[in-house]
Amino acid sequence: MSIHILWQNPFSFNKKPLFISEYFSSLDEDEIYILKEYGINLKISRKLFNNAKFLKNLDLFVLEIKAKEWISLKLVKSISITYFNALVNGVINLLLKLLFESGAVLHKLELSFSESFEFKPEIFHSIGQMSYSSQDYNIYLCHSLNLKIYSDYEPRLFHSLFHAIIRIIKSQDQLKWFSIDGEDYPTELYGIISALECQKNSLQEVIIIECTYNKEFEVLKDCKNLETLRILNCCSKLLNLLDCKISTLEIVDCPIEVQTIPLILEKSGLLLQRLSFNPKNLKDIHEALFFLEALKSFCPNITYLTILNIGVSTQLVEIIGNLQKLQFLSLWCFNDIQEEELKIQVMLFAEILPLTLQYLDLGNTWQPYIFLNHCNAPLKRLLIYRLNDEKHTRALIEFCLRNKALNYVGVYAYSDLGENLRKEVEAHVTNVALVQRARIVEF
Question: Which SUPFAM superfamilies match (predicted)?
Fold first, then answer.
């Protein structure tokens, strides 16, 4: 029973990858000889189990890293970097052939490689012939694979790879999660996105990274059961894909057209519960108001909210106060108002926080000592930017003593806190962990 569990995702182990030798127990003599030529001697002993068959999760980029570590451990003599890279490619291709032809049923496959990796042609065929779990299947596609292959083979190999990926997509009964990373904004998608047409009734989450608009993406408008959409560093036209009602929306580093903001939020409306919004160009106060008014009008059921790259304003403070179901809030804002006005906004912000709020990331704008002196929300976890002088420290101690629910305080600039002040905080607040600031809730 333990063998089945241990070999589901061995490449994720944070240990020396000596287990790779176990995979090679099924190599034939010719393949073993290839490794010996490079100075790797293997003691082959036949195993009771075909360990490769138990594989469930495979990230090919991590596999490449582990292969390099294994080679470094196994080499008995020094070799040039050219020979080392050739050996890495040979080992990876052997591993992929073993894994893809083992009969394993994958739950998750991540296709991404470094620029130095070279596929052997037969590997593409093996990928396409693999079996995949129909119940809980994830696939991560990196369009820009940066494959280094001979020019006369390149068209055929790329065609084989995309054909294999399309076959994987179409073979699934319940494809729930799909991600594509364009890396360099590809203009051609080779039918990969169009293939999602057959998964329109099962897709629940889609992630699009560094892609320009392509008509293939229109197929996502038919995915009526889509619950989560994440668009990162893409062109603004891709935001028009939001033609369905979703509960989780993440928009990061995308140029925003002001008139599209209300439309984006209105389509999801009451269903939207988790929103992460970090636009690339929303600097103007009037543009920000469009977003804030739309959030206020259409999305009162937000429980998780992350807003970055937006200015401190009265409207922002009022919106936060109106979100009466809010549990997690992260605000990294810029400040372009006068000092006295900022103090007023910080006090108002601290006083209007919903009593449902459990987690708060204050960023580096909201002055901690003013906030802490006026906040009565029963926070459980608080992240602040800096705790570097006595007034901040005193305010934190009083807040911790006043708020019995608090059990975690993370500080970004932790080194600024003197040793005496840090010990004083820890002495007065025994029920609260004061640690280096870290993000503790994932979106």
Answer: RNI-like
